[in-house]
Design a protein that fits this description.
Layout lengths: L2 H19 L1 E16 L19 E6 L6 E11 L2 E12 L4 E2 L1 E2 L5 E2 L4 E8 L2 E9 L1 H8 L11 H11 L16 E9 L6 E8 L12 E10 L2 E10 L4 H9 L5 H11 L8 E12 L2 E11 L12 E14 L2 E12 L6 E12 L4 E13 L18 E12 L1
Antiparallel strand pairs: 1-2, 1-3, 1-20, 3-4, 4-5, 4-8, 6-7, 8-9, 9-10, 10-11, 11-12, 12-13, 13-14, 14-15, 15-16, 16-17, 17-18, 18-19, 19-20
Helix pairs in contact: 4-5
């Protein structure tokens, strides 16, 4: 090898090392599992469509007591001048069977069913494109003592609001009253200014491009200073998958086209303004105590709902927490749903939990909840992804362990 060749090779190796030093890739994840006991789980209609049929008490192995078990990989390349390129892929892991991936919004399974994004960040803030969590969830979790857990929280109450509409089958990212994950989403996050951070999101229709049909828009504003957290968001959308829900609700069989025809006959349209949710909330922590409260207003402006479903709902939340010891936390939450469409229909959820931190990464937890559902469309469940029978009282408890890496 000539001297010139050696110089060129050393230069190339140095340049490659420089590029690598400016990039980072992280593998991360969570394993969360335990034993769940719950009464009056639903039978009959699919997903979250309200059903009056109930089983007795069920004891089961349950994945996801605080949050879903998952794994992911994320990375960032430093482009210089404060700019960077980012990516993130994240999906469920079923600890019961070891399967990777989970349900997506097309009634199928995806390996990275939670996050699949590419982004660009800089002094202007950050823009992310792809399937990702709705900014609504950031606001919801920030002002709930129970932090939008999978058991007894504002998140499970949100699912109860959506199921009360009669139009939520559980596998669609455009639902009646607020959403957790958005397909084909563009999310912009501002730099933090005077303790305020804003998130703006646009989610394209799931199969209709950038048209109005089935699209969603979200604006969220968060404030954090010392022990005070404030949140506010506005969510709006169109369509909410009503054709498929109509087919399931009426017992129609056959292809999606049959459901679409049933929806057309009922006057539903993917461009109808069917989704709206607004909220304000606050959380305050002083010393070892924490309190929180929030108000949510849900509406279906087009009133395109299933028979007996809710077109307008209110939700009130209260929370209290106590850090008994540095590694022992008690949390509690009260969540009330009121159906403004059907007089006398309501649901209340009371949840408590005790977390014992073995380390920064591993926690043992015990939690319990009781729910009162009143009305044929009220099937609020204390456990995420575990539908219960409508118009029935429900009780549940869970013991589990959660480890993050």
């Amino acid at each position: 090898m000539t001297r010139l060749s050696k110089i060129v090779m050393l230069g190339a190796m140095g340049a490659a090392g420089s590029v690598c030093a400016q990039s980072s890739v992280t593998l991360y994840g969570t394993a969360d599992t335990g034993v769940l006991s719950i009464s009056n789980t639903a039978t009959g209609k699919p997903g979250y469509i309200p059903s009056l049929n109930a089983t007795g008490r069920t004891n089961m192995y349950k994945d996801g007591g605080i949050g879903a078990s998952n794994w992911g990989v994320r990375g960032k390349e430093d482009l210089g001048g404060g700019y960077g390129a980012t990516f993130q892929f994240q999906g469920n892991i079923n600890t019961a069977a070891g399967a990777a991936g989970g349900p997506n919004s097309s009634s199928g399974q995806s390996t990275f069913n939670q996050m699949a994004t590419v982004g660009f960040s800089g002094p202007f803030g950050e823009v992310k494109l792809g399937r990702q969590m709705s900014p609504m969830m950031f606001a919801m979790a920030s002002t709930d003592v129970r932090q939008a857990r999978y058991f007894g929280s504002a998140l499970t109450a949100l699912v109860g609001m959506n199921s009360a509409s009669g139009a939520f089958i559980g596998n669609n990212s455009n639902v009646a009253f607020g959403t957790v994950y958005n397909d084909s989403a563009i999310v912009y996050t501002t730099p933090t200014w005077n303790n305020f951070t804003a998130h703006l999101a646009y989610a394209a229709g799931e199969s209709t491009g950038f048209g109005k049909a089935n699209s969603q828009q979200t604006a969220a504003l968060l404030y954090a200073s010392g022990g005070l957290r404030l949140s506010a968001f506005y969510y709006n959308g169109y369509g909410n998958n009503l054709p498929v829900a109509t087919a399931l609700y009426t017992g129609a069989t056959g292809s999606a086209a049959a459901g679409s025809s049933a929806a057309t006959a009922a006057g539903f349209s993917p461009t109808a303004n069917t989704n709206r949710l607004m909220s304000v909330g606050a959380l305050y922590k002083w010393d070892v105590f924490t309190v929180s409260g929030a108000y949510y207003k849900a509406r279906n402006p087009a009133r395109a709902v299933m028979p007996g479903g809710a077109a307008s709902m209110d939700m009130y939340t209260l929370g209290a927490g106590w850090q008994i010891r540095p590694n022992l936390n008690f949390t509690s939450g009260y969540y009330r749903l009121k159906d403004d469409t059907n007089a006398g229909h309501s649901a209340t959820q009371l949840a408590v939990g005790l977390d014992y931190l073995l380390s920064k990464r591993t926690v043992l937890y015990a939690q319990a909840a009781t729910i009162r559902n009143k009305g044929a469309n009220m099937n609020l469940s204390p456990v995420y992804a575990t539908p219960v029978a409508a118009d029935r009282n429900v009780s549940a408890w869970m013991l589990g362990i959660r480890h993050t890496f």
